[in-house]
From TrEMBL:
Domain Dihydroxy-acid/6-phosphogluconate dehydratase N-terminal: 68-382
UniProt GO MF annotations: 4 iron, 4 sulfur cluster binding; metal ion binding; phosphogluconate dehydratase activity
Alphabetical list of SUPFAM superfamilies matching this protein: IlvD/EDD N-terminal domain-like, LeuD/IlvD-like
PROSITE patterns the UniProt entry points to: ILVD_EDD_1, ILVD_EDD_2
GO BP: D-gluconate metabolic process; Entner-Doudoroff pathway through 6-phosphogluconate
Official protein name in the record: Phosphogluconate dehydratase
One GO CC term, this protein: cytosol
Amino acid sequence: MNNLHPVVAKVTQRVVENSREGRRRYLDLVEEAAGRDPNRHSMSCSNLAHAFAGAEEDQEAIMKARGPNIGIVTAYNDMLSAHQPYGRYPEQMKLFAREFGATAQVAGGTPAMCDGVTQGQDGMELSLFSRDAIALSTAVALSHAMYDSIALLGICDKIVPGLMIGALRFGHLPAIFVPSGPMPSGISNKDKQKTRQLYAEGKATREELLRSEMGSYHSPGTCTFYGTANSNQMMMEMMGLHVPGAAFVTPGTGLRQKLTRAATHRLTEITKDGNDFRPLAQCVDEKAIVNAAIGLLATGGSTNHAIHIPAMARAAGIAFDWNDLAELSSVVPLLARVYPNGSGDVNHFHAAGGMGYVIGELLDAGLAHRDIKTIWGEGLGDYAKEPVMDDDTLVWREIGESGDPEMLSTVAQPFQSDGGMRLVEGNLGRACFKTSAVERSRWTIEAPARVFETQRAVAEAFNKGELNRDVVVVVRFQGPRSNGMPELHALTPPLAVLQEQGYRVALVTDGRMSGASGKVPAAIHVTPEALGGGPLSLLQDGDMIKLCAETGTLSTDADLASRTPAHDAQTEMGLGRELFAMFRHHADGAEQGGSAMLASAGL
């Protein structure tokens, strides 16, 4: 690509250099797996008979290897609205596969928890490590070696990264992510946010709050705010792992079904036995990982991906860290304002031009790699269009100008000159600061600390009026090794109330915020975490803390060296948390991806 921005080229080259040995080992693993021919063609008759005993009308085709066999790994459950539509996908995909002389089998299922259900609850402490469990479940599903390509059915927060990590260990096979799309828009995000804050102030009843939430989260499909789930879908487009434009088409529509059909057909065409082989290991390379980060920055996506991108990269033998993310952020402009960064949701974003528009802008400005191996077409340029129905035929058309300049802008006139994700560091460690939703006047906060070890303690102090002042709220012992690094989104309404009352407020934590991280300045994912003697374990109430996104500062003037670390007194019992003790014990830092599985595997 001749016009690639020099900083994008520089960061990519650094990632290539830092990944040289790890990438070589990974590709050697993939080559060895492909060379062993670990599939049904080499199985004994007894093995094979077990594998298609339940295949009913596809038995003969699988037995005689008449065509490719697609392994479906599904994260279906009907508690999670985004995944509810997947219940009928396998049945449909088997029909679509037969149209091309192929077969499809459900290789296995993975867990799929909803972070929206567990926000502020003890179950959230399982959330991050559910990504490892999903990766392991994916590996178990694919270990049967029956498949020529992989359909990955998952959308939400830890599920797409987990599916990716697991599938990458079978990188000799082609894989396509198959989304199901966002639910239709409900009440406005502004109204929802207003009710939440009124409830936090005691001015709305629980019934009023529940009615408001039900007006927003109301039907099958992904939640419509631009959180981690929808950021996942953005990244799959930026990496070329979707059928182009599949991310944000609503469930239950003819276009949605046509896109699923196209994905199934494509999985029959890009196998080893065809003439267009596109194994996952070749698609997910250094350039694809950089593209994922660029998309995150250009759209103001979820802060959770500061953890997930390094973890996914590691699974492909690629080293990517927060220095890379921060340097890309310095040149990638913010092109989209989607709630919580703006007023409209992902349906409005898609209608205004969506991912096709963003990709076109980035490519024209040399801010993304065009020459990646995608599962479709000749590179990322094929993703700068939108899918539509022409009578009963799926086609792609040019997008043109933004349909809503308040939501989608140009590289020449962006909403913000950088990507809105800053690295802050100092004697309190390294952390991420999402600036895209925070007013610039609040990018610098210097105030006394109030130190907590649970979200509940923060809520109690807020209700007592103890936080009615300029304050940096520190919530520690929330890292991967302490309690699984839960999201702390329940802190957003009370801190927003304090901010609207005129106080200078910030959050510093070794935990996570959700993809809905909003207008309160926050240094999150602080590493090293408090457990084990990290700097946050040395803080005391009243210590002056400076958090500045302008200068990249996270520091205190307190004499930390003279202090003894506080100890984590929390319990990890109940709701199955005790079963995840191994994950907590072996987890590595947030910047490395916060994974016990990858750390234990030496990746």
